[in-house]
Amino acid sequence: MVDTEVPRRRRVGGGALSALVVLLTIAFLGAAGLRLLGIDGTRYTVATTALTPYTTAAGVLLGCFALLLRRWAAGTVVLLVAIVMVAAVAPRAFPDSRPNGIGTEVRVMSINMLFGRADAVDVVAAVRDNRVDVLTLQELTTESVGALDRAGLRTVLPHRVFEDAPSAFGSGIASRYPLTAKALTPPGTMRQPGALVDLPGRQDIEVVSVHATPPVVTDGPEAWQRELAGLPNRNVNGPPRVLAGDFNATLDHVGLRRLLANGYVDAADEVGAGLEPTWPSGAFWPPPVTIDHVLVDSRCPVDTYGVLTISGTDHRAVVTKFVVPTP
Fold first, then answer.
1. Domain boundaries for CATH 3.60.10.10 within the chain
2. What is the rounded distance in angstroms from the CA atom of residue 164 to the CA atom of residue 161?
3. pTM higher than 0.90
4. Short-list 166, 168, 163, CA closest to 181
5. From CA 208, how far away is CA 231, in angstroms rounded?
6. Which fold has domain 103-325?
7. 72-126 pLDDT, tens per residue?
């Protein structure tokens, strides 16, 4: 009797490779689950969520790799989840439709000064070159205020609400237009001054220089979560609000997504630059992420957005132009 059974083809790599694929699948599904389920959790899971764009790309590659190796179950599951992640992340690389806006053009720039060490001449040059109207500063020290003034900041932005302090605790707002200090956030670890900007015309704006506590400190992310939750929502019955600064959060973290759901838009996301990293500047480790933002009241159409390298700081500056509509 002739044996006509066709021998089964052995899968490439055998059991060891199968175990590796399974381990990578579990790791990917765990990281993706944090983002899709909206879990910030511990400082370690917060850091994992910050890497969502990298996780998404890795998931696509892992799914294709698993299918090529005929690990059908793992490959199919990973690719399906990766597609969902791509749907959440990829739109940041494409501009949104911009409604027509008639009103006052405003340019806002924000920079974390890294304990006041950022090159003041670079900062003022960026303000001049980009015709900035409102500048928000984080980690603003008394010494850096003096350096900025020597570089000519007061000449171009004569109005200010500064709460300078040692180390990383100070922040400030400088403006081409008159400012009135306003308490728009509860007290936090870092200073987060707010101000009403008296724009030309009939409509003003409120601005907050945002600096949330880093979530990866040994004490955990609780202070960071409270401070993000304490940022003011859009005031539909008042002037448009702008939150600009170092949120220590990406568009994948729950606290930032909550603000966007309550009436803000992320300027970078609006123009298709939402994947442009802002920290660490000029380094490849940790993997660069986008934690500096300008959140604009959704009533204000965003025209442009860009990131700038400033000497002396590990953050890149962010600058955007938007239109404050005439009421």
1. 103-325
2. 9
3. yes
4. 163
5. 9
6. Deoxyribonuclease I; Chain A (3.60.10)
7. 999 999 999 999 999 999 999 999 887 777 899 999 999 999 999 999 999 999 9
